[in-house]
Amino acid sequence: MIKNEILPIGSVVLLKNSERKVMVMGLLQGNPAHLDKVYDYCGCLYPEGYMDANNIFLFDEEQIEEICFKGFDAEEQAEFRNRVTEAIRSV
Fold it and tell me: Residue 30's pLDDT is what?
């Protein structure tokens, strides 16, 4: 579960034990094969971007080794982040 600040969509991270960067493209995503688990983020390879559903990465905050770039953080993002944070805390 996300414990620190929620990263905006478009943020680029390096995951632990990985050589490739991943761009955040979604929050609180599930995997149809494992319905009991919700991941903090989903992403795609950077710089390629979304190529197909087979190249989506589901990961949790603790798997992030480095935040390479924080995505655009406009008013809409701040409002969305507040709603997500409230939803997480109410679980």
Answer: 81
CB atoms under 10 Å from CB of 76, counted, come to 9
Least Cα distance to 45 among 67, 8, 14 occurs for 14
Residues 6+ apart with CB under 8 A from 30: 37, 38, 39
**Residue range 38-58: mean pLDDT, rounded:** 93
Nearest to 59 by CA among 4, 22, 19, 6: 22
CA atoms of 15 and 20, how far apart (whole Å):
8
Contact assessment for residue 11 and residue 77, using Cβ atoms and an 8 Å cutoff: no
Residues 64 and 10 sit within 8 Å (Cβ to Cβ):
no
75 pLDDT exceeds 90? Answer: no
